[in-house]
Design goal:
With 210 residues, the chain is an alpha/beta fold. The protein has a single domain, classed as P-loop containing nucleotide triphosphate hydrolases (Rossmann fold, 3-Layer(aba) Sandwich). 50% of the residues lie in helices and 14% in strands. It contains 8 helices and 6 strands, in the order βαβααβααβααβαβ. The protein has a 6-stranded parallel β-sheet, sandwiched between helices. α8 links the parallel β5 and β6. α3 packs antiparallel against α4. The relative contact order is 0.19.
Length: 210
């Protein structure tokens, strides 16, 4: 691996966890997976976003910060590299799309305070998937609380990611269009994706369509 710390990102259903897990196993890295299934607010939010958006985003922020602080502060001589299936700045992306302006202003202040102590990934990989395919993937994996996710919500989150990525001038970002790739079931597609991620990239945003 060319990078000590890689974060895999994408909208809900993009395949972040599947890719991060496989890359971690093959490269013998430490693996950080977001613990979203433990969040009691998530099913409530999908049914009533206006009521539960603020407690949901705060609870996610607290959980992500604690997990990353604990994991990234540890030293493992045998597995020094890290692959994660999320980047904590997704907290800003989601909250910007789900919170009212006054709530977001408060949330962003809290985020800026806690985020100062966390290192950023050496490479941020964003898996781009169309909303139609995202919805199909969500239905296939069958998590009951996700079945109420609306297309317009996925579109908002997707646009939020792109807005954020365009503004980053001091990070190494790789955007991969995976609409024609099935890296879970087709070995050749996975190898193609792995080779793209393993290349050396300069600072900036790099967009590829395999």
């Amino acid at each position: 691996m060319h990078y000590n710390y890689i974060a895999i990102e994408g909208t809900i259903g993009a395949g972040k966890t599947s890719l991060a897990t496989r890359l971690s196993i093959e490269n013998n890295t430490r693996l950080i997976l977001e613990q979203f299934e433990d969040n009691d607010f998530l099913p409530k939010f999908y049914k009533d976003p206006a009521k539960y958006a603020f407690p949901l985003e705060l609870s996610f922020l607290a959980a992500r910060f604690q997990q990353l602080r604990d994991e990234l502060s540890m030293t493992d001589l045998f597995r020094p590299n890290i692959i994660s299936d999320y980047f904590i700045n997704k907290s800003l992306i989601f909250s910007r799309k789900t919170l009212a302006d006054d709530e977001y202003a408060l949330y962003a202040r809290l985020f800026s305070i806690i985020n100062l102590s966390l290192p950023r990934p050496d490479l941020l990989v964003y898996l781009y998937v169309s909303v139609q395919r995202l919805k199909s993937n969500i239905i296939k994996r069958g998590r009951p609380y996700e079945q109420d996710i609306r297309h317009d919500y996925l579109e908002k989150i997707q646009s939020g990611y792109f807005d954020y990525l365009r503004q980053q001038s001091d990070m190494r970002i790789l955007i991969i269009d995976t609409n024609e790739i099935d890296f879970v079931n087709i070995p050749g597609h996975y190898e193609l994706l792995k080779d793209l991620i393993d290349k050396e990239y300069p600072i900036g945003v790099h967009t590829v369509t395999p």
